[in-house]
Amino acid sequence: MNLYLAAQDPTLADFGKDPWWLVLGKIVFAFVFGLLATLLGVWFERRVVGRMAVRPGPNQVGPFGLLQTLADGLKMAFKEDILPRAADKVVFFFAPTISVICAVTALSVVPFGPKVSIFGHWTPLQVTDVSVAVLVILACSSMGIYGIVLGGWASGSTYPLLGGLRSSAQMISYEVAMGLSIVAVFMTAGTMSTSGIVAAQGDATQLTIAGQQIPAPGWYAILLLPSFVIFFIAMVGETNRAPFDLPEAESELVAGFMTEYSSLKFALFMLSEYVSMVTMSAVTTTLFLGGWRAPWPITLWAGANSGWWPMLWFFGKVVALVFVFVWLRGTLPRLRYDQFMRFGWKVLLPINLVWILVLSGLRSIEDWQTKDRLLATAIGAGVLLLATLFWPSRKKAPKQPLQEQVNTRPHGSFPLPPMDLQVPPSPRTKRVVAEREPANVVAGSESGEV
């Protein structure tokens, strides 16, 4: 079986040869990475948002407030665990667990680095890899939504149910855009293996500029710019992060699907959200940002992509993407639900389909040089982005000023408020003032006579 997979994809030949203790160590490392990234991610978000809001953020518990998240987790553990009377006890209990397990499982096919020597065994820094690893990530992302939907349904309350329904519609809408954006990666890399995609991005292409051969970056975030932008937008929608946090909109649904949860169950939902954010950042790094490969100009160093150094580049890219998540939360307001759904179905989906069609046409032309393909790709990306930025609005400018429209309204139509926003006094107020005026006059005259 391993020989067959190696023949289909040479990058898979490095897997399936590790001893049991090394496989167990990789699994523990991926799990610990998810938990530690969550703890540090919560602290990082609160510090960054505090900086944006011109306030310090957590800075008391531990150095720089690093232990504040741990203190909050312990506080949640000792809170009272409340079970609603109308809840489905079994589903209500296991729903948060489903979300956490699916978010952590996706890390099993993410490459953290190249082959290294661990106690004399040469092994890649990845738990495992299969020929359809990216489909495993999509499956974990889709299954994680079941925890939210089931948690909202099993709560036996209105607000959680609405939050769960919103989450299911949101997953269906943006899962389509996310899947189509990954199709462009499959077409370019020629494989669905995550390690194979990282290896494909490491092959620098040569561009001829002014008679000189210059290596061009092989990151798909540059070569497949529309797919990268659409994937990142869909990823924010999949993880229920602001400005797409509609399943847990505080102003409409209290806490959404988590309204009836408390104590450790509530903490598990929070954990799943941050683990999903870190996991999708790692997936984006793998698919579009070269994975563990060093960015330029670090690549000028010969040993940049060997040994344990690539883990540093990988974690740096993940932290940068997590910062973008936090930046969006601290900058953009929440969308209305109709705007959110319209954006997914009527903007992202058509642009994605057109882009895949253009990319397929470019790949079908075999006699083009690499630089010509890159030039045509850049032109197509620019056209699509311009079309997105200048998308025509449905609102049309009035043909005549508002005051003229008011003056031309037929007699007996529905009254409008005054244009100067000065509301006239009500008839009741006029009547009360008129009743009080004679008494005041009499009192004034009597006082004058005395």
From TrEMBL:
Gene that this sequence comes from: nuoH
EC number annotated for this UniProt entry: 7.1.1.-
One Gene Ontology molecular-function label: oxidoreductase activity, acting on NAD(P)H, quinone or similar compound as acceptor
Keyword Membrane: yes
Membrane topology: Multi-pass membrane protein
Principal location listed in the UniProt entry: membrane
Catalysed reaction equations from the record: a quinone + NADH + 5 H(+)(in) = a quinol + NAD(+) + 4 H(+)(out)
Compartments (UniProt record): Cell membrane; Membrane
Keywords: Cell membrane, Membrane, NAD, Oxidoreductase, Quinone, Translocase, Transmembrane, Transmembrane helix, Ubiquinone
Region span, Disordered: 398-450
Residues that span the membrane, as ranges: 20-44, 90-112, 132-155, 176-198, 218-237, 266-288, 308-328, 340-362, 374-391
Listed HAMAP family: NDH1_NuoH
Family note: Belongs to the complex I subunit 1 family.
NCBIfam families: PRK06076.1-2, PRK06076.1-4
A single BP term in Gene Ontology: aerobic respiration
Task of the protein: NDH-1 shuttles electrons from NADH, via FMN and iron-sulfur (Fe-S) centers, to quinones in the respiratory chain. The immediate electron acceptor for the enzyme in this species is believed to be ubiquinone. Couples the redox reaction to proton translocation (for every two electrons transferred, four hydrogen ions are translocated across the cytoplasmic membrane), and thus conserves the redox energy in a proton gradient. This subunit may bind ubiquinone.
Entry protein name: NADH-quinone oxidoreductase subunit H
Subunit and interaction comment: NDH-1 is composed of 14 different subunits. Subunits NuoA, H, J, K, L, M, N constitute the membrane sector of the complex.
Pfam hit, one: NADHdh
